[in-house]
């Protein structure tokens, strides 16, 4: 009897136990569901992601330049010429490098190493605004330059070689390709996203020592400890192009100006970075650029450049200048004071011009 009663009691106890487990379980389930749908447990997602301007150079309020598709080439009078132009820009070394099959007159780099996706990538130093703005006056030569002249500038400086004859099939091909990809851009306009990203000035000078540390973390794996790059197994083209040394761009090249190099690497390097997903802070980009451009590279006679010295850009690293800032400051910054001085000078000049015009009339 006793046993039976005990048994019944324990069965009752088990039942109670079960009910309380079920009750507790469902309450817990309700809490979890409510929590899930209100996002209480999702705290990290609930906090808005803050993107600093430091790491996000893209201005979403402006639309960026969209390139014309290569498919449209069939509508060109000479599609093969345009395609050859693209090919020359993408694989320059193969045709014109030290072992080039057409001629041997460049340093082994490709135009595309600096003008990404054959000069068609947004903020990848693309050619979007070339057809719309050339021929144009350039202070560096003090003349009105054609596309041919501008292309040969890069051949002589960035590719540290010799220019092409304007009548050669190669030059005609390059020019027709550049005109092809810029054909939708209205005359005299420079769409957002063309050329090189303009990096904000820092308040301090760029620091090559800091740059070296960052270079060794973020660039050395491809471009090498001595900036020598890496040749492909065939020895004709580079898998990773050189950043300094005798096979790199010379001191007359656009990238030898700190703002050009820093802007280029900010939105494009390490390879895979984009303007929407940059991998370097602005400071890193400036400092790494300072390191790269303080390494040795080929020289060039620049005595004919910048015939009007006040026309020199603020980051041209060689004097004489029309201001009293040192060569060192023109090379590494801080650039803000030079920029402000230049702008003030320009204003003064314009005011003077207006005054003399008023006197005349
Ligand atoms: C080492 C890097 C490098 C290489 C290689 C290079 N360029 Fe350039 N190129 C530049 C830079 C930097 C600029 C100036 C961009 C600026 O100031 O916004 C430039 C400017 C130009 C421009 C004028 C762009 C404009 O909007 O005004 C043309 C055209 C051009 N390059 C064509 C070529 C061609 C064609 C080749 C190959 C034969 C070539 N470049 C190779 C770096 C390079
Ligand atoms: C994953 C490999 C890789 C890494 C890492 C990398 N690069 Fe590059 N870099 C490339 C390639 C590839 C090109 C040429 C792109 C092309 O031809 O399409 C290039 C081109 C360049 C160029 C223009 C061409 C030249 O040789 O002057 C510069 C400047 C440059 N890189 C700088 C840097 C800097 C600075 C870093 C570090 C912040 C960096 N790269 C990290 C692969 C890399």
- Contiguous runs where pLDDT drops below 50 for at least 5 residues: 1-5, 37-55
Could you say what the CATH architecture of the domain at 70-181 is? Answer: Orthogonal Bundle
The top level CATH class name of the domain at 70-181: Mainly Alpha
Which hetero ligands occur in this complex?
heme C
CATH superfamily of the domain at 70-181: Cytochrome c-like domain
The average pLDDT value, as a whole number, equals: 88
Order of helices and strands: HHHHHHHEEHHHHEEHHHH
CATH topology title of the domain at 70-181: Cytochrome Bc1 Complex, Chain D, domain 2
Strand order of the largest sheet: 1-2
Using DSSP, what is the number of strands?
Answer: 4
Our Rg estimate from Cα atoms comes to 30 Å
Distance between the termini: 129 Å
Q: Please state the structural category.
A: mainly alpha
**Please, how many helices?**
15
